[in-house]
Amino acid sequence: MSASLFSFLADLTVVLHASFVLFVIAGQVLILIGWMRKWHWTQNFIFRFLHLAAIGYVVLEAWLGITCPLTILEYHLRHLAGEATHGMSFIGYWMHYFLFYTAPDWVFILIYSLFGALVLLTFLRYPPHLPFGSSKKRSKI
């Protein structure tokens, strides 16, 4: 494969990574707004379960000190493209600018844990509608 293909795949990985982060953050914002505005779609079970699982995965990675697999994949693809991880394409540069910050590990663990707790609390206080067998109506026999 050519270096430009690996570079493109690395950029695509960064975009996927940014989309994941956007799903977690924007998803929570929309859930809270939906709770206040009584938007029924914000109680969709699949959406809410995937949202909770996504932040749960991030928190678990932080607690265990695991590097995100998307970061590892991107760096590997950049290496195969012959690029340094800091000498990347335009898309890669700007996505990194918005995704990665320099701070002690405990700061990120705290932020992820607090955000994860907010998502869990929202899940419990504004629960999703179960997709099966949760009808409140009972048949009269």
Number of helical segments?
5
| Ends apart, CA distance between termini | 68 Å
Strand content: under 5%
**Low-confidence runs:** none
What is the helix content?
55-70%
Mean pLDDT: 87
How many distinct folded domains? 1
Order of helices and strands: HHHHH
- What is the C-alpha radius of gyration, as a whole number of Å? 19 Å
Described by strand count, sense and barrel closure, the largest sheet is:
none
Assign an overall shape: elongated
* Structural class category: mainly alpha
Number of strands: 0
Transmembrane segments: 12-33, 45-66, 106-126
Keywords: Membrane, Transmembrane, Transmembrane helix
Protein name: DUF2784 domain-containing protein
Pfam families: DUF2784
Describe the structure.
By secondary structure, this protein is mainly α. Helices cover about 70% and strands about 0% of the residues. Helix 1 packs across helix 2 and helix 1 packs antiparallel against helix 3. The longest helix has about 35 residues, at about 5-35. InterPro entries: DUF2784 (IPR021218).
